[in-house]
Amino acid sequence: MKLPIPKEFWETARRSPVTGTPSIVYYIWLIYSVFFFVEPFSRGRAAYWAGCLAVYIVFVSLIVILNFTKKPAQRHILLAALAVLGFCVFPFNSGASSFIIFSAAFLPFCVASISIVLPTLGFLCSGLLLEGFLLGRRPTHYAFSALFILVVGGMDIFVAKKNRMDRRLRMAQE
């Protein structure tokens, strides 16, 4: 028995419109969100766990929706939502900085202009540094995350550019 699933779904599921990689590879990166669960393990309270799980469900939902969204404006909104989620949850769980890192990682795949990507990465990095400082956190809680925003986002600029060039080359060969 064949399920009545549109052909477009399977084509989208095979390759992520965001990164251009096979969709399963897109979700492998979620392993880095494990840092979000370090604090719940150390605190061990059921209510805190429940709150973190609820936030994580929202995070994964945003990632999945981002994977299936083709319109650039919607992608931009979803990336902003990932970053806002990270900034909002960071005061309660410093592992939420991984949400901001995810938004920085996907940014170059969603925005082709380096003149927009670089200032946005700087804004995300500065915002995390400022928030960590204002919260009185130890610099190790936020400085490494800010560095990862720059490193991951910066490296992905080149990966995204290569993916775009490969996509154009494949289209020209067809």
Mind explaining what this structure looks like?
By secondary structure, the protein is an all-alpha fold. The protein has one domain. It is 75% helix and 0% strand. The chain has helices at 7-14, 23-28, 38-43, 46-68, 72-89, 97-110, 114-134, 139-173. Helix 6 (97-110) runs antiparallel to helix 7, helix 6 packs parallel to helix 8 and helix 7 runs antiparallel to helix 8 (139-173). The protein is globular and about 55 Å long. The model has no long low-confidence stretch (mean pLDDT 85).
Q: What would a concise description of this structure say?
A:
With about 170 residues, the protein is mostly helical.
Descriptive tags:
single chain; 8 helices; globular; mainly alpha; 174 residues
Q: Can you give the mean pLDDT?
A: 85
| Rg, nearest Å | 17 Å
| Class inferred from helices and paired strands | mainly alpha
Helix and strand pattern? HHHHHHHH
Mass-distribution shape: globular
Number of strands: 0
- Low-pLDDT stretches are none
User: What is the count of distinct domains?
Assistant: 1
- Please report the number of helical segments: 8
Task: Describe the secondary-structure layout.
Layout lengths: L6 H8 L8 H6 L9 H6 L2 H23 L3 H18 L7 H14 L3 H21 L4 H35 L1
